[in-house]
Automatic annotation (TrEMBL):
Organism: Thermomonospora cellulosilytica
Keyword terms of this UniProt record: ATP-binding, Nucleotide-binding, Transport
One MF annotation (Gene Ontology) recorded for this entry: ATP binding
Name under which the protein is recorded: Peptide/nickel transport system ATP-binding protein
Leader sequence residues: none
Domain ABC transporter intervals: 2-217
Similarity field: Belongs to the ABC transporter superfamily.
Keyword Membrane: no
One Pfam family of this chain: ABC_tran
GO BP, sorted A to Z: transmembrane transport
InterPro entries: AAA+_ATPase (IPR003593), ABC_transp_ATP-bind (IPR050319), ABC_transporter-like_ATP-bd (IPR003439), P-loop_NTPase (IPR027417)
């Protein structure tokens, strides 16, 4: 289980974004968080992914309280959490081939075929794997980012507006892929209520998660 209790976080003095957010994500469930632009959804994802240190509150991962975040977060804990970001082009190195992007989070010593297996899982052909980001569509690149996130063998997958940059059919394909991974706990944050209602087991509104929110819907 990945859980947050009373998370308070922001960006320096007077820039509080999370004002006491609580949330629980269990393996085998897909939950949605619905909130308007700027309310703090990405900040919540970053804290849950151990990429941003909260000012107060707790993150617990499989029963263990996380005390170290960002570069200090133990690799063994980080590997349990995969993240797919909103803007695929901003989250990859434009010089790398898709194969290298897909393989980025595989454990050291993983067989080269592992990248092919991940690519196949997300519907990327070997020919696409040889291309670089500027030679593929946003949807294809986001598939590579999803494959990369799965590379560490995570138990939890955090999707930050994963489909916002995609057309409807690419979005549906990606959501279907994630939806079929019942071994994972999936958190999808979005401002698209229809998307979350269609794919999530349960959807929470931002105001329901937060005791004293900085922003309200
Ligand atoms: N690195 C940063 N430094 C300072 N303020 C930031 C930083 N990142 C985000 N913010 C601010 O924190 C607030 C919440 O941002 P966040 O990206 O978490 O919201 P969001 O709900 O994900 O928005 P969107 O749906 O538009 O992606 C915003 O007011 C934003 O301007």
């Amino acid at each position: 289980m990945l859980s947050a209790t009373g998370l308070v976080a922001g960006y320096g003095k007077g820039r509080r974004v999370l004002g006491g957010v609580s949330l629980t994500l269990e393996q085998g469930r897909m939950i949605g968080v619905l909130g308007p632009s700027g309310c703090g959804k990405s900040t919540l994802i970053r804290v849950l992914a151990l990429l941003h240190e909260p000012d107060a509150g707790q993150v617990r991962l499989d029963g263990e309280r996380v005390t170290r975040f960002r570069y200090a977060a133990p690799a063994e804990l980080r590997r349990r959490i995969g993240v797919v970001f909103q803007h695929p082009r901003a989250s990859v190195d434009p010089r790398h081939t898709l194969r290298r992007i897909v393989a980025a989070h595989l454990p050291a010593g993983a067989a080269p075929e592992e990248a092919d297996r991940l690519a196949e899982l997300v519907g990327l052909t070997p020919e696409l794997l040889r291309r670089r980001p500027h030679e593929v569509s946003d949807g294809q690149l986001q598939r590579a980012c999803l494959a990369r996130a799965l590379g560490s063998g995570p138990r939890y997958l955090l999707c930050d507006e994963m489909t916002a940059m995609l057309d409807a059919s690419s979005a549906a394909a990606l959501v279907h892929l994630v939806r079929t991974r019942r071994d994972l706990g999936v958190l999808m944050v979005s401002h698209d209520a229809a998307l979350l209602d269609a794919c999530c087991d349960e959807t929470f509104r931002w105001r329901d998660l937060t005791a004293a929110p900085a922003h309200r819907e």
